Amino acid sequence: MKMKNKFLFTVCLSFCSITPLLAQQFIDKAVVEYEVKTNVKKTMGNSSFAEMLKDKLPQFKTAYYNLSFANNKSIFKFDHWEPNSTMPEFLRRNDEDNIWYFDYNQGTSSIQKGVFGTMFNIEDSIKHINWKFENENRMIAGFNCRKAVGIIMDSVYVFAFYTDEITIPGGPCSVNGLPGLIMGMTIPRLYTSYIATKVMLNDVNVAAIKPIPSKKPMSFTELKKTFIERTKEWGGGDDEDSKKWIDQLLWNTFL
Predict the structure, then answer these.
(1) What is the 3-state secondary structure (H, E, C) of 76-141?
(2) What are phi and psi of 188, to 5 degrees?
């Protein structure tokens, strides 16, 4: 009788140790909605032009983006504005047209960015980001997320929270390289935050997760060269406010 009880105890103990593993789900296909909030007045700086516009603009602009992923590929694009948004067209256009596509199997990206009123298509390898992991956790959209800090474009800090329950190593825009999906992200120098609001597992349009068609794509190096040439033509950038504004434009261009 004692042997039988010992046997049952061992079986129960084994089952209990396996159950959490079975309960943990790893998501490899879904659509994640992000709320993207930017402090408009801070991004505009303190130039005379900015001061004229500040009273006519809201403090924040809030947009919603969708990141769709499947088969270790993803596409991140605009979905809608916050209801009753009154942002002028020049602050909305790029948000609505920008698209980021990534193939993590091949290590390649296809990005559409609006800059200087012109649409550019960039095809290049996925940019590497060095991350430092921290012992801080946060629940976002029902997922336990761990904090990591990265640096993009040599000097811009990114504070991210990722979950390893969603297996794709991506996130909003071109930020990537963590062992799971970035669910929350803040970029202080751009006065912008990204936070996942919901994860939708059904009705993923896998066929729409594809590179952006382009006849004349360029590399990031070619885009940077074009950026420098265009900003030189403006003849500005000598005062601190102009330099800050151009830096922010550059960082947003390569984000």
Answers:
(1) EEEEEECCCCCCCHHHHHHHHHCEEEEECCCCEEEEEEEECCEEEEEEEECCCCCEEEEEEEEEEC
(2) -55, -40
Burial of 244 (0-12, 13-18, 19+ CB in 10 A): middle
Quote the tokens at residue 141: 């959209």
- Given a contact cutoff of 8 angstroms between Cβ atoms, the answer to whether 180 and 162 are in contact is yes
- The answer to whether the CB of 182 falls within 8 A of the CB of 160 is yes
Q: Which residues contact 250 (CB under 8 A, 6 or more apart)?
A: 153, 227
Distance CA 140, CA 209 (A): 24
What separation, in Å, do the N-terminal and C-terminal C-alpha atoms of the chain show?
Answer: 68
C-alpha neighbours within 13 Å on the C-beta side of residue 151: 4
| Inter-axis angle of helices 220-234 and 240-253, nearest 10 | 150
Higher-confidence residue: 185 or 230? 185
Q: Which of 68, 63, 114 shows the shortest CA–CA distance to 223?
A: 114
Q: What is the pLDDT of residues 28-82, one digit of tens each?
A: 999 999 999 999 878 776 655 556 666 667 788 999 999 999 999 999 999 999 9
Query: In whole angstroms, what is the distance from residue 206 CA to residue 74 CA?
Result: 9
Question: Hey, which CATH number is domain 30-253, 1.10.10, 3.40.1000, 3.40.50, 2.50.20?
Answer: 2.50.20
Each domain of the chain, given as residue ranges in start order, spans 30-253
